[in-house]
Design a protein that fits this description.
It contains twelve helices and eight strands. The chain has 316 residues and is an alpha/beta fold. The protein folds into two domains: 209 residues, Spore Coat Polysaccharide Biosynthesis Protein SpsA, Chain A (Alpha-Beta Complex); 96 residues, no CATH class. The strands form two sheets. It has a five-stranded mixed beta sheet, sandwiched between helices. A three-stranded mixed beta sheet has the order 5-8-6. The longest helix is centred in the C-terminal third of the chain and has 21 residues. It starts with 5 loop residues before the first strand and ends with a helix. The relative contact order is 0.12.
């Protein structure tokens, strides 16, 4: 019986410290039918050298090109891939050896379902990762998954979580190349809405690396905040077009408030607009997080001053 091919698509920009470990985690998969497509997106460090150590592998393709961003790199990788199933993977994240096989087994006969996985965060070594069960760690209808994931306004939708049939990827459409930060949330929201069911793969694990200096997710620039704003806006429009309900409005209202808290005082006008969007959706309210000093200042003088002092002290 022919086993379906899985394409693992990896955008790489200046990831010399991590890309070798990421490739090793793919080559160590128990599922035998895998191809790896890496787009070296204009790296200026030794990423090319690290990738070159694997050049003899027949199942690895490397595309070198000028820097165009992670979303464009993922679209390029998909165009050069052949697999029936697609695994997107960032250049610094890792997969457990059984991850892809367990997910293929769950969806190989349900080609309009997508597979989710367990995930844990780590900073230095993957064995530090703690896997804490979430409400979405079960089989769910796509809208139920989206509602539960955003129940507190946050949720996790990074690329390594998913294994997706090519047909669903095509139906969802390409990555939005005009987005930078939070483009994965926007893309996988469309993927979920293009699928029939989310099937959870118990034991399939992926490792999310945090604390990477200079990472895209850590940027505090106007362009980064604008990208987050537009990504939430696109997700809200897509989801509410399918289900305009109290649970969805509540989740997005919390998302807008979290964005406002995070981007103040870096981008005050955007923070103001985010709060307006939240109030237009739902009456739910969430206070920004912080330690005892932050909470004291916020209680006496308001959270905006507390945030300014927090940022001035070196806290992001």
């Amino acid at each position: 019986m022919t086993r379906p091919l899985v394409s693992v698509l990896i955008p790489c920009f200046n990831a010399e410290r991590y890309i070798g470990e990421t490739i090793d985690s793919v080559l160590g998969q128990t599922w035998p039918e895998i191809e790896i497509v890496i787009v070296n997106d204009g790296s200026t460090d030794r990423s090319s050298h690290e990738i070159g150590r694997f050049a003899a592998r027949p199942n690895l393709m490397v595309l070198d090109r000028p820097n165009k961003g992670a979303a464009a790199s993922r679209n390029e990788a998909l165009r050069h891939s052949r697999g029936e199933f697609i695994q997107y993977l960032d250049a610094d994240d890792l997969l457990s050896p059984e991850k892809i096989e367990l997910q293929v087994r769950r969806i190989e006969n349900q080609r309009y379902s997508i597979a989710s996985a367990e995930w844990g965060r780590f900073y230095t070594m993957p064995d530090e990762a703690e896997f804490q069960a979430e409400e979405v760690w079960r089989d769910l209808a796509p809208l139920d998954w989206l509602a539960l994931s955003r129940r507190d306004g946050l949720g996790m939708m990074f690329p390594a979580l998913w294994l997706v049939p090519r047909s669903v990827v095509v139906a969802a459409g390409p990555w939005a190349e005009d987005l930078s930060l939070t483009d994965d949330m926007e893309f996988f929201t469309r993927v979920l809405l293009s699928s029939e069911r989310v099937l959870f793969s118990a034991g399939a694990r992926c490792y999310y690396r945090s604390g990477v200096r200079g990472s895209l997710s850590g940027r505090k620039t106007p362009a980064a905040w604008d990208s987050q704003f537009r990504a939430i806006d696109l997700c809200e429009r897509s989801v509410l077009a399918r289900e305009d309900s109290d649970r969805m409005r509540r989740g997005f209202a919390l998302s807008w408030q979290h964005l406002a808290h995070a981007c103040h005082p870096y981008h005050r006008e955007l923070a103001k607009n985010a709060l307006m969007r939240a109030r237009a959706l739902h009456a739910v309210h969430v206070d920004p997080g912080g330690g005892p000093a932050f909470r004291c200042v916020a209680r006496l003088f308001g959270w905006r001053l507390a945030r300014r002092l927090q940022v001035a002290s070196g806290r992001p």
